[in-house]
């Protein structure tokens, strides 16, 4: 009779090697995924910190003229660029939400550990802005319309238009009027005076005539509409840049 022991042992060895390769591939994939996730989140947080950091760091910097415009437009660059890559390659409308979710997670960790635990600032004074609903709107617009033009025209416009209403539940309390030593000011101003920092929002006092101390005016709606137009333009530019950077190129000569 033919002996089959060696053949069976060879099959088992091949199966074990295949299982080992699959485990190794899964491990490498998970490691690469973790590296990409932290790289994207870290790059987004770094760019936001060095460009418009103070608007995101402090509650009394969240004025009605520049805060709904500059940080909102700057944050849209990374999500729009990655959305172009994900949509052109995989038809996955998830990049905006994923990037903003990672950014929000990193900002909350930074606010809690760096500013609250080590810096001693109240957590209610250093909370990051809320952008996740705005990112969901862009991704939903993309998956419903399947049109980049309409996504920029509708989704990106709403991204800039709705940032103030989305953050208003957290920001409203800082507009409460307070009488302090015979002077009327807001809760944000009082916190700003009590917690002295290296960079004070003096520019805010100039551009909006004492900013949060001005309890009512038509500045916010005009800024929101203008921010929507700027975000639409930024979305188109960042989407185009994402397509260019995502393009494959083959070297003809070495």
Keywords:
two-stranded antiparallel sheet; globular; mainly alpha; 254 residues; particulate methane monooxygenase, chain B; 2 strands; 10 helices
CATH class: Mainly Alpha
In the CATH scheme, what's the topology name?
Answer: particulate methane monooxygenase, chain B
Question: What percent of the residues sit in helical stretches (DSSP H or I)?
Answer: 55-70%
Q: Tell me the quaternary state.
A: single chain
Structural class: mainly alpha
Number of helices: 10
Order of helices and strands: HHHHHHHEEHHH
Strand order of the largest sheet: 1-2
Secondary structure layout plus pairing:
Blueprint: H1 5-57, H2 70-75, H3 77-90, H4 95-118, H5 132-145, H6 148-161, H7 163-171, E1 177-180, E2 183-186, H8 187-194, H9 202-207, H10 219-245
Helix pairs in contact: 1-4, 3-4, 3-10, 4-5, 5-6, 6-10
Polypeptide structure, described:
By secondary structure, this protein is mainly alpha-helical. The protein has a single domain, classed as Ammonia/particulate methane monooxygenase, subunit A (particulate methane monooxygenase, chain B), CATH 1.20.1450. The protein is built from 10 helices and 2 strands; from the N terminus they run H-H-H-H-H-H-H-E-E-H-H-H. A two-stranded antiparallel ribbon has the order 1-2. Helix 3 packs across helix 10 and helix 5 packs antiparallel against helix 6.
